[in-house]
Amino acid sequence: MGKTALVVGATGLIGRELVEQLLEEERYDAVWIIVRRTKRWSHPKLHEVVGFEHMDEALPHIDDVYCALGTTIAVAGSQEAFKHVDLELPLEVARVARQHGATRYAVVSAQGASLRSPFFYNRVKGELENGLKVFGFEHLVIARPSLLLGERDSFRLGEKTAEVLSRPFQTLLLENIPDAAPIQALHVARALIIASEEGQGTEVLTSGMMQRISR
pTM here? Predict the structure, then answer.
């Protein structure tokens, strides 16, 4: 019997990559996703739960969790709404997943995540990382990507501007300061999947590490 993976944030930039790559992974017989509205994706290994409020009763046994939930304060509308998506939901998923047998949890955090950060966004990510350690997963994989590259469903002016400005320096950064270089979402997803295959304890992946793992 193969393993079962759960993906949350499946419709986002990294989440879509996670789903596509996990469906091709031989070690998984089933990939479950939790979405707010049905996507009617068709694949024999893919199953969906509509609404986080239903995940406790709807999910089967879970082995590995991949969390790519994330938004911005501008999109969420307030700091409280942002914390609900980026902190409260990932922790609730961790709680439910542990009750359903999960032993591994891979999460997309952020470069600079820290409870002591002067920036609200990074403080919330630091709170998330600390909160996940409480659940006692055998293996907790934390990805801290730098600027993410890829095709988003929604336009984010700040991120798009940073991407354009960084283009002339991407090769230089990759060769000299790999943790500061922009990284493709598909490489973040691949690194999370590879890192989650084995290992114990808490493992933190920087952008430079993910570039090396995923190539």
Answer: 0.88
